[in-house]
Write a structure and sequence with these properties.
Belongs to the 4-hydroxybenzoyl-CoA thioesterase family. InterPro entries: 4-hydroxybenzoyl-CoA_TE, HotDog_dom_sf, YbgC/YbaW. The protein is of the alpha+beta class and 139 residues long. It has a single domain, classed as Hotdog Thioesterase (Thiol Ester Dehydrase, Chain A). The chain contains four helices and seven strands; from the N terminus they run βααββββββαα. The strands form two sheets. It has a five-stranded antiparallel β-sheet. The protein has a two-stranded antiparallel sheet with strand order 2-7. A hairpin with a 5-residue loop joins β5 (87-95) and β6 (101-110). The longest helix is centred in the N-terminal third of the chain and has 16 residues, at 25-40. The chain is elongated and about 45 Å long. The model has no long low-confidence stretch (mean pLDDT 96).
């Protein structure tokens, strides 16, 4: 199974009154990880959009284990949790600088036509992405 790793430095504006990363910022970090994962597969998300398709988020969940604070550098690990030709589920683990798990989570996406948001088969519309996803699953 392929795992992408992205480093994210915690910026002051990403913290809350308690001095820890505000929970909504983890979704932004998940997107950073997901974008890096897709690029490591050899693709660019913006090229999908230019061809008239998008991959909106349809579900997300997070579990909080340890806080991250301003000035620390987080490591975002991203992998393909599930893929069926239509839906893609990415898994994430955000680690503290000493390797402890800070946050885990998943996001689920579908590929849709930009003009009407109707779902399409990645397998049919983007066969190269389909093959790369199948390889990334490692099954």
């Amino acid at each position: 199974m392929m795992v992408s790793e992205s480093k994210v430095k915690v910026r002051y504006q990403e913290t809350d009154q308690m001095g820890v990363v505000y929970h909504a910022n983890y979704l932004v970090w998940f997107e950073i990880g997901r974008t890096d994962f897709i690029e490591e597969l050899g693709f660019q998300y913006h090229e999908m959009e230019l061809s008239g398709y998008m991959s909106p988020l349809i579900d997300a969940d997070m579990q909080f284990k340890q806080p991250l604070r301003y000035g620390q550098t987080a490591l975002v690990k991203t992998w393909l949790e599930a893929y069926d030709g239509l839906r893609v589920t990415y898994g994430y683990e955000v680690q503290t600088p000493d390797g402890q798990t800070a946050v885990t989570g998943h996001t689920k996406h579908v590929c849709v036509k930009k003009e009407n948001f109707k779902p399409v088969s990645i397998r049919k519309v983007f066969p190269e992405w389909h093959e790369a996803y199948e390889r990334a699953k490692g099954e």
